[in-house]
Amino acid sequence: MTSLLICADSEDWELVDESRIEKTYINYDRIWKHHGYVYYWVLNNLKEPTETRGSSATLYKSHCQMRSINLLQVSYYELRWAQYDSTDFTDNMGDGYYARPDSMEEKILNIVCGHID
After folding, report:
1. Which of 8, 22, 86, 96 could bond to 82 as cystine, CB 3.0-4.6 Å?
2. Domain segments of the chain: what residues?
3. pLDDT, tens digit, for every residue of 65-114?
């Protein structure tokens, strides 16, 4: 699978969560619905990048009514904002799962599903 997210401009992303190690963003312009599923990108910027990793971008496929989440692609980048070389993981992403109550994934799923309706 070719990465659909070439690079991220900070102006396109809105902060949705912040932990002590990273900030999590959603790009509302890149949320789309197809055959009952919602697709969306989540960007995580490390607050203190390592020598080899500054950010990750994850493409999700979710079903709002069933509350299911599937990871379609995870890309790790050397710099923040999904910049520079990436390492992509797309194989064996699993059959999906359900967001744990009160988790960041549930929060993001609620935001995305609310945006698409």
Report:
1. 8
2. 11-116
3. 999 999 998 999 999 998 877 787 776 567 789 989 999 999 999 999 99
Report the run of H or E that residue 86 belongs to, with start and end.
Answer: strand 83-89
The CA-atom distances, in angstroms, between 54 and each of 43, 66, 80, 114, 115 are 11, 33, 5, 29, 28
Fold entry, domain 11-116: Lipocalin (2.40.128)
User: What is the token pair recorded at 63?
Assistant: 């079903």
- pTM (2 decimals)? 0.85
| Biggest alpha carbon–alpha carbon distance for the chain | 41
Amino acid found at 66:
M
Contacts 24+ apart (CB under 8 A), 102-106: 104/17, 104/19, 104/24, 105/69
